[in-house]
Amino acid sequence: MLRVGADLLPCDRVARARKRWGVRFLARVLTPREIEDSRGRTESFAVRIAAKEAASKALGVGLMTRVGWRDIEVQRGPQGEPSLLLHGEAARLAETLGLNEWALSLSHAGGQALAVVVAHRAGG
Length: 124
Description:
Blueprint: E1 2-10, H1 11-21, H2 23-29, H3 32-38, H4 42-59, E2 72-76, E3 82-86, H5 88-97, E4 101-109, E5 112-120
Antiparallel strand pairs: 1-5, 2-3, 4-5
């Protein structure tokens, strides 16, 4: 089984939400570690939010339907590479689907944040 999800998010949409709701917005959609790793940069916040949307699409559900924003976490590996950590309902759904390997690609340019997620079932 192979699943793919992608999302494109205008960075100014995240900037407007930050301006309107401030820290409450960030705390609702990002984990404390994601907020710290973003170092206050709107593009970094936006690309992480896009990754959550892309991962939920790979799971076959939308965010806020079965999976919450903080059920999907973007982490940085030892070389700075992005990876996903699933919690709660996202982790349960991935297990049910047998999705046990995830790849994540992130980019932001021209005021847009892009995330692509590929998930598959490795092994038997």
